[in-house]
Structure formats: structure tokens, C-alpha cells
Design a protein that fits this description.
Layout lengths: L1 H58 L1
Length: 60
Amino acid sequence: MEEVINLIANFGFPIALVIYFLARFEKKLEELSTLLTHLSWVIEQISDTNKVKERRRIGK
């Protein structure tokens, strides 16, 4: 039992810190994923707009 207490005393703070940073990192990854999805949509819209403009230019 004393060994467990020593382990917690020695490694408790680093473990808590890692858990905290992992939680923050996960949130940032979710935000980045959302932004990448939106960016992909915007690029697709721009590409579609350019295709329409090119078709109109060729058709004239």
C-alpha cells in the first residue's frame, strides 16, 4: 500500500497534467476537424462556380 501512495505522490501531478493536456488537445482537434470540413465545402463551392463561369465563357 505504501508503494501505491509513493507512486501517486511521485507521479500524480504529471499524470494529472497529461490528462488535462489530452482533454484540451482533443477539443482543439475537434475544432480543426470542423474547420477542415467547412474549408472543403468552401473550396468545392468555389470550384463549382469556376466551372459554371468557364462553361458560360466557352458557350459565348
